[in-house]
Amino acid sequence: MAIDRRDNSRYKTFTRRAMILGGAQAAAFVALGGRMYYLQIMKTDEYRMLSEENRINVRLLAPLRGAIVDRFGTVLASNRQNYRAVLVAEQTPDIEDTLHKLARIVEITPDSRRKIMRDVARAPRFMPVVVAENLSWEQFAQINVNEPDLPGVQPDVGETRYYPFSTELAHVVGYVTPVYQKDLDKAPDEPLLKLPGFRIGKSGIEQKYDMPLRGIAGASHVEVNAFGRVIRELSKDKGKPGAEVVLTLDMEVQKFACERLKDESASAVVMDVHTGEVISFVSTPAFDPNQFNTGYGAAAYKALLDNPYLPLTNKALAGLYPPGSTFKTVTAIAALEAGIDPSRTVTCTGKYAFGNHLFHCWKKEGHGNMNMHDGIKHSCDIYFYDVARRVGIDAIEKVAKDFGLGQTYNFDISGEKAGIVPSRAWKRAVTGESWQQGETLISGIGQGFLLTSPLQLAVLAARIANDGYAVTPHLIRAIGGELVARKPAPKIDVNPEWLKIVQGGMNGVSNEPGGTAFRSRITQVGMELAGKTGSAQVRRISMAERLGGVRKNDALEWRLRDHALFICFAPVANPQYAMSLVIEHGGSGSGAAAPAARDIMLKALTRNAARQEASMPPHDHGHGHEHDVEEG
Amino acid sequence: MFDLRRFTGREMTIGEKLLEFNWGFLLLLTVIACIGFAMLYSVADGSFSPWAMKQMIRFAAGAALMIVVALVDLRLWMRVAYPMYAVALGLVAAVDFVGFKGMGAQRWLDLGVIQLQPSEVMKVAILLALARYFHGLALDEVSRIRNLIIPVLLIVVPVGLVVVQPDLGTAILLTISGGAIFFAAGLAWRYFIVTGLAVLGAIPIIWERLHDYQRDRVFTFLDPERDPLGAGYHILQSKIALGSGGLFGKGFMQGSQAHLNFLPEKQTDFIFTMLGEELGFIGGVTLLAFYCVALVFSINVSLQCRNQFGRLLSLGVSVSFFFYVFINTAMVMGLLPVVGVPLPLVSYGGTAMLSLMFAFGLLMSCYIHRNLEIGRGSSSSLWM
Predict the structure, then answer these.
(1) Fewer Cβ neighbours under 10 Å: the N or C end of chain A?
(2) pLDDT of residue A632
(3) Which chain B residues are within 8 Å of A57, Cβ to Cβ?
(4) How far is Cα A258 from Cα A316, in angstroms, rounded to an integer?
């Protein structure tokens, strides 16, 4: 009994259209299911990874920087607690006000205030930002006590580098600085550098051995929420602290040498003639490496830059000086190699005519008849003019290079300078002019083009003293408990007999009356040293001055005085240490350099017993070469 | 099925109606709602407050409302269709003038005791009004233009009022469910084709009038990686959460994306994502299957109805229910732009729950009164 027949037609239409809608809905559900299948089954690995990346945050833990110690374990560089204050922005209602209150306890300059506000703006609000560092214990305690009045400020202890010996090792150990943009540019993928408070080695051992000293960063895997706040720690890898670096230095000798040279612009290197271990490495004056930790103050740094004694320059390594008469040892070896009889004499009248030039001896009235021994002992210029002329510059160059001059040794501190050992080829290459015979003469007494560093002069002395082994200097004894293996020094192609003669001449310098350093001899039996003085002229002496009498160094202003040099080895009978010492504008080698060298060498020798004892185990590793045994 | 009324010609009693009530359907809705409670419990890190408990109370109230609405005679609903629509329209208009802003849009009306979202009321009222209107038209009358002016206005006026709030999601849903009734009533295909073309032509104009955030959503939808930390962040994190759930999920209350706050709005619009992350593909498909069953039932109701009003009303309810589910899930899966549409029965929200249960009550009323034949005449003749 349909109320309306026409309802049938619209019911049919309705049914058809309802089925269409139903079908469309079914299709839509299939699409949804397919999409879920795609996301949750096909792509699940990818999304699971993204989800883990979201969730897990790796936080680096800075490793403790390795200590640097001397051969006896005396700490030369360590980490010290750095009392500091950090600010957590979300814990203070008013950052400006909190800083204002904090400024009553620690100084906050407008500059550092700006930096703090910038750091706060960059970091999430729950991240602590360092507001004050290197606080004194009093300041630190005051912050602790006043914490309730300083909302958001928390006392905190970080690590900072500490150099207990300050200036005495500034040029050896070097220093660390905060990480600057250019350091980041050099190693953009090193995440350690981005840690707040991380320090990077910028000079000396700290720089050259920065990597082992740094250690391996630890990591803490933490779960974070979408805002970066840590929810919990999932795992922690403590990392590995930096390796301890043991130096060959003997801090007692180092301290003594620094004290002895503290008023001079000087440098000294003491090294073992057999192993090349550097016992003392001094360049005075120096700077305070501790200050670089936080950045040297502008005024203090400018004072360093303006100091004529060049405290920022490592003179033992990078100071280049004419070797002066110390070079006569090289000329002597070259002469002997060339077949010149050491007993042959040259008569010194104080003058030596060559071509149309007149060459002078330092002793105006002359030395009389000089053989090689006497020539070295008295440092007679005329004798060496004569032999140098006879052997020629190229033979001298060969010996100079064999004995370590004019080269670098890949030393454990960066900044070595090769200096100059001239030859005919060198002059032509550099100046384009041909070699003058007169230049051979002045090269024979260590002047002219020759330039050497104190480190090279110490190596020269060592190679003479060890009867001709090409020992090279080094400062590193062990890294992370592992002794650094060294190859035995190769033999130099030279007749050891000739070296005995030169050693004898140097013995004469120090231990025979009339020797240029006789007054600075070591009188303790068995510790006697053999040396060679040198005075490197830094100005031209005009003919007029020579006629009127050469002015004494004392009469000259400091910067015009001669450099005073001395090389030596000891004990004479069984050489153990070689040494070089240079006092800039010190006057003369015999007057200024030799006495200081004597004192330092004596200190090194008296410390010898202790050193030998402490070194016993490492020396089992064959650091000496067979030469030791022969002499034994 | 034996139909008492057909032979006796008398009205059903309340008891008969309660027997006719499809309790299985209410059970199905309860199961779906329970999934929602569980997810809300998880969102709160294992706590019934602040969401799960409130939602349970609302669902209980909604179920009661559904039963009451279902028992009301379908002819009464037909009679009040226009008045209800008028009231709803008035409320929607009132929001534009006196409502306060929530979530950046003006949608809420403070009635003193409860805060009412009139657009939710309108979603139900528009179905009633359109079903009522088309009930009175024979098939050959439906496609006459002069008969279309009123129903088109019935849709356009509230949609226009909602759009300016601005609430694009509701506007779209109103349009779609209204359109579905036009379609089911038998409106000629050509109107849909012409309208479709007109919409395409109007897209540039609509684009001009969209708010920046709405445009951003469209851009973001087209290329979520465009700005992974900005506008694309939500949809990207939603996909990561779903995808990382895998087949079985990370486990109940173990969703790292949800619990570490990478997921936005996870108690409301993104609750399906959280379910997918914690219960996996299995959990998500199961929920979708429940929705499917509910939809099959509601379409079936409309096919069984012996009166056009009931057919159109129940179909309208099922279509809008479907679109809620589809738009929400497709959005969180990255198939549609982000539109503020909750997942029915599962997302946290009071007004939406009540209006949905009200609509299901109407659906059930259609089911209970499916054998009632109602003449096309005026509403005054509805009572015998």
Answers:
(1) N
(2) 27
(3) none
(4) 13
Greater pLDDT, A328 or B118 = A328
User: What are the structure tokens assigned to A169, written together?
Assistant: 């090792």
- What digits encode the pLDDT tens for the residues A422-471? 999 999 999 899 999 999 999 999 999 999 999 999 999 999 999 999 99
How many other CB atoms sit within 10 Å of the CB of residue A56? 14
Asked if the C-beta of B158 comes within 8 angstroms of chain A's C-beta atoms, the answer is no
Confidence of residue B114 (pLDDT cuts 50, 70, 90): low
Q: Residue A539 above 70 pLDDT?
A: no
Contact residues on chain B for A8, CB-CB shorter than 8 A: none
pTM of the full predicted structure? 0.64
Cβ atoms B298, B318 nearer than 8 A:
yes
* A619 or A514: which leads in pLDDT: A514
Tell me which residue in A31, A44, A226 faces B244 most closely, judged by beta carbons.
A44
A14 with B186: Cβ contact below 8 A? yes
Model ipTM value: 0.90
SS3 assignment, position A336: helix
Nearest to B243 among A4, A10, A47 (CB): A47
Among residues 175-234 of chain B, which lie with CB inside 8 Å of chain A? 180, 183-186
pLDDT at A11 > cutoff 60: yes
Verify whether the Cβ–Cβ distance B281 to A36 is below 8 Å.
yes
Inter-chain residue contact B245 with A40, CB threshold 8 Å: yes
Helical pair B350-368 and B118-135, crossing angle rounded to 10 deg = 20
Looking at per-residue pLDDT, the higher value among A197 and B188 belongs to: B188
Distance CA A165, CA A153 (A): 34
| Host H or E run for residue A358 | strand A357-360
Is residue A361 a contact partner of residue A381, using CB atoms and an 8 Å limit?
yes
pLDDT, tens only, A265-280 = 999 999 999 999 999 9
B138 in A contact zone (CB under 8 Å): yes
Select the residue of A3, A14, A51 nearest B256 (Cβ to Cβ). A51
- First-to-last alpha carbon distance for chain B, in angstroms, is 24
Under DSSP, is residue A563 helix (H, G, I), strand (E, B) or coil?
Answer: strand
Does B150 contact A at CB distance below 8 Å? no
